[in-house]
Amino acid sequence: MTKSGESMLFDDRLATVLRSRAGSDTAARTQYRQLIDLLGTLPVDADVDLGQEGLNRLGELSDALPFLWQAAILRQPGVRLRNPALVNWLADREPQVAAAAMSAASLAGDDWLEIIPHLPVSARGFLRHRADLPASARQMLERLGVGDLVLTDAAPRQAAPEVSPAQEPLEPTTPAPGGGPAEIGALVRRIEAFRRARSDNAPPPPARFSTDSQAVAAGRAITSFEFEADASGMISWASPGIAPMVVGITLGDPEPDAIASVDPVSARNMELRLPVRGGRISFSATPAITGLWLIDASPRFAPLNRAFEGYAGRIRRQADKPEAEAGTEPVDEGSDRMRQVLHELRTPVNAIQGFAEIIQQQLFGPAPNEYRALAASVAVDAARLLAGFDEIERLAKLESRAMTLPAGSSDMRAAVHIILQRLENVLRPRNARISFDVSGGPFVIGIEQTDAQQLVWRVLATLAGSMAPGEEAKLTIHGDGTSLDISAEIPLAMRETADLFDTSGQHRAGSISTGAFGTGFTLRLARAEALAVGGGLRREQDRLVLTLPVLTEAMPDNSDDTFGAHQSART
């Protein structure tokens, strides 16, 4: 039996997603949404093993992503949850994730009847708030509701222990008519004795969040807790172990008599309903929570009318810094705010790109070719925007020292040679030329090869893109044993620019695109990358000099003089 075209398309798309590597939080959230959409519309004749692999990957992503993010993804418009097995799997996750899944699930009547008896009691409780369920599903929830409301013992009932005469079990007797106070008093005493005997043998109830509850019970300091706040900033829910201490406290601007004071930047973000990442909050209350804490929270919006409902997140205790670190530089609040704005911009752009790809690939049905061409153009523009956002975020992180380049080992002489070969096809038709001279050594630096080539590309492609027809530029690389200098002549068209790193002015587009924001931004990003590894990028009259520290021991593979003492490239 051959597969249908729909299942084959599903298998191809799922296999493509599974081959992708989720190396960052953004990639993990994107892959989580993709797997939800693909597994949520699983065809009947799809590859079972591939579907199980997708479910396993979804489980890995669920363990890595905060459950509040998972719930937000499930509540996004356009989420398709039509697979009963996936809905049943999501119902067993955290309460917020299960609630979002029950709200977004779109199953047929028979599918509801099949999975409702197997859902956890809490998930069935979420379903009872839905008014669009089939009548048969509502009837089954009503029949199961009687059992859901019965409180059961936390452990299986044990055999009745032997009791002393003073604790003999209560007999179902009824006072005789006209019985006096003595009979009633004896009955009350026997009821109390029965309750005491039962409570002594009952196991302690399990804690919902064991970490906080056990910490409080043991007298240990609580290091973190989860919370939810309403639209006014008042904490309405918190982890059980700490809830009595923080519920009712309002998060707001620093004030002399405030119980909880949030730093000005975080307070401003909360006023603008933006995410808060690594904000500082100070509690002045009971000794268990008094002190400095850090807050990570995201705004919550109603799924129907998108009305602001408050914040949800996690508050963790700020670790005490050693005295040696007391003089470290503060976090660049402007860069942190820029990263948060970029995070908010990516969400609608990702949605636009996704829907454009749906139209272009005709995933929901046939579309006219004209619409498909427009959708493809929109998807390309969205990809360019996302690439630009990545560059801005990278610059903000590097300049605020919130990011470092991964350690590695790469030969900068080889990286320069590779980039010159790539530029050859662009400059040869214009009869332009770059001569490349090598002296000294070694040239091995402590970053990965990809980052090294990207750094060289930003510098050389920016200069080459401004070269005039017939112009020749000299490029040299020199090593003195501790550092290396890559020195390039600045093209005539750029020599009149007072500040090559200025990002505010208008820059003409060169023949080679090095970024979406002009030559000034690209060179500024290259300078930030060089500073991140202990080097620098500076202008010396008519030359641009990139300085980088070298490793003390060169790589064996690059110890030979592969390119010779002098390399001239006509590009």
Task: Produce the secondary structure layout.
Elements: H1 5-19, H2 25-40, H3 48-64, H4 67-74, H5 84-91, H6 95-104, H7 109-115, H8 121-127, H9 135-148, H10 181-201, H11 210-218, E1 224-229, E2 235-238, H12 243-246, E3 260-262, H13 264-271, E4 276-283, E5 291-301, E6 308-317, H14 333-361, H15 369-399, E7 407-411, H16 412-427, E8 433-440, E9 444-447, H17 449-465, E10 472-479, E11 483-489, H18 492-495, H19 518-532, E12 536-540, E13 543-549, E14 566-569
Parallel strand pairs: 8-10
Antiparallel strand pairs: 1-2, 1-6, 3-4, 4-5, 5-6, 7-9, 8-14, 10-11, 11-13, 12-13
Overview of the structural elements:
With 571 residues, the protein is of the alpha+beta class. It folds into 4 domains: 5-146, no CATH class; 220-319, 2-Layer Sandwich (Beta-Lactamase); 333-399; 407-569, Histidine kinase-like ATPase, C-terminal domain (Heat Shock Protein 90). The chain contains 19 helices and 14 strands. The chain has a 6-stranded antiparallel beta sheet with strand order 2-1-6-5-4-3. Helix 1 runs parallel beside helix 3 and helix 17 (449-465) runs antiparallel to helix 19 (518-532). It is globular and about 105 Å long. The protein starts with a helix and ends with a strand.
